[in-house]
Amino acid sequence: MADKKFELTDLSSGKKTDLPVRSGTIGPDIIDVASINKDHGVFTFDPGFGVTAATESKITYIDGDAGVLLHRGYPIEQLAEKSSFMEVAYLLLNGELPDAAGLSGFTDSIRHHTMINESLLRFFNGFHHNAHPMAMVSAVVASMSAFYHDSMDINNPRHREIFAHRIIAKIPTIAAAAHKHSLGQPFVYPRNDLDYCANMLNMFYAVPCERYEVDPVAAQALDLLFILHADHEQNASTSTVRLAGSTGANPYAAISAGVAALWGPAHGGANEAVLAMLEQIGTVDNIPKYLAMAKDKSSHFRLMGFGHRVYKNFDPRAKIIRAACHKVLARLGRTDNPLFELALRLEEIALKDEYFVQRKLYPNVDFYSGVIYSALGIPRSMFTVMFAIARTVGWVAHWQEMISDPAMRIGRPRQLYTGSIQRDYVSVDKR
Ligand code: CMC
Question: For residues 312, 229, 57 and 309, what is the CA-based torsion angle, rounded to 10 degrees?
Fold first, then answer.
């Protein structure tokens, strides 16, 4: 088949350029516009990156119209049903599912990197007890760059691997320390005899004065949520990690930038905002009032947990979490859950509303996740931290893919300048 091309014509000069078209393994073709500045002296304008591919990637694929999400080719539904978070982490990082020895070697390595430096732990004392945990996590992850700077050569594949295992292993420890700091309770050290999620729950809930047994139902529910949040191709936080990392910055600092980007309510902060919104709505009778507010362009209120830049159909992760809510609440004996009932009714009513239908606004991953986190006893302010723990895997996989690509260049967008043209400086006494 002949190579596909797009023709770009400058209608004022009549000058034409053939733009090469690149095809991925699946998904829409991409027009390569790299030559248009050289040929025509122009740039492209796409605020919010609505139609711009910033990179080539082999990690995750989304078909937003069909509601499809694949990690390294495997559908999210199959991974959610059959895999584990550690296995998905291995898959995202290495490109293939591990064999038994590969999985146990990987899991073992993560288990043995869970402790954090005692000095790093003391950083938490500098935060006020009511500091938002995302602020603490972002700051402490950034501080890790001070502990692992000289020993980190980003061009050394083994150093990159050690970094990957360290940050994936330590992020639950950092999150738990932030949680314990908020409560004023003593920090609980990681236990390497427990698996990833059980260890995290133990660090969250154990106290020195009582025995604590991790509920396997809770650990399993968390493992599922972590699988569903592990990666989502070039979302805002992943793109932030790539952009920061593209300068050659210390990768812990780049991950911290990702945590900061995730915190916003338009991104990972939505899970916290959904619960706040459901509590604000309170009862089914109030739903029409809040839907009217969400549709009113003069109000800043949006239906949190609804809508997505890429999905113009059900977010497949939301479907899985909604089904899991029923199961997890039943297994935890919490079937009477008014917020979940309210969320179900809100979804039902919104999906029949012309405004949401026309704009293809469906529940996204954050709509139901808070229901499960709440049932597990995780406070609302920690919801986005949970997301960050899981997404660390995706951030690291993308950072690794970018740094190991010999064609990597610094990320540096252009702009349409609309400010003042050149003018002469006027001294202060003459202004
Ligand atoms: N409630 C009310 N109206 C909405 C909503 C919403 N949640 N989302 C989009 N719209 C409207 C928006 O006002 C616009 O209407 P119009 O065409 O009349 O101007 C139209 O739908 C298109 O929206 P957009 O803002 O251009 O879409 P976007 O792709 O720039 O933003 C989004 C995507 C996720 C930021 C947005 O849908 C949103 O703010 N949703 C609520 C926050 C949320 O749930 N975020 C989590 C996203 S998924 C997980 C993650 O990324 O972490």
Answer: 20
C-alpha 280 to ligand 1 mean position (Å): 20
Q: Which residues are catalytic?
A: 308, 366
User: Which pLDDT tens digit goes with each residue over 262-301?
Assistant: 999 999 999 999 999 999 999 999 999 999 999 999 999 9
Residue 333: count of CB within 10 angstroms of its CB: 9
Among candidate residues 220, 223, 222, 125, the one with its CA nearest the CA of residue 180: 125
Predicted TM-score (pTM) of the model is: 0.96
Is residue 2 pLDDT above 70, yes or no?
A: no
CB atoms within 10 A of CB 139: 19
| Each residue's pLDDT tens digit, 166-223 | 999 999 999 999 999 999 999 999 999 999 999 999 999 999 999 999 999 999 999 9
Give every strand in the sheet of 16-22, ordered side by side.
Answer: 5-9, 16-22, 30-31
β-bridge pairing 68-71 and 16-22:
unpaired
Nearest to 272 by CA among 299, 304, 302: 304
Instruction: Compute, in angstroms, the gap from residue 93 CA to the centroid of ligand 1.
Output: 30
For ligand 1, mutation pick of 319, 347, 349, 364 (most atoms within 8 Å of CB): 364
Q: Is 317 exposed, middle or buried (0-12, 13-18, 19+ CB in 10 A)?
A: buried
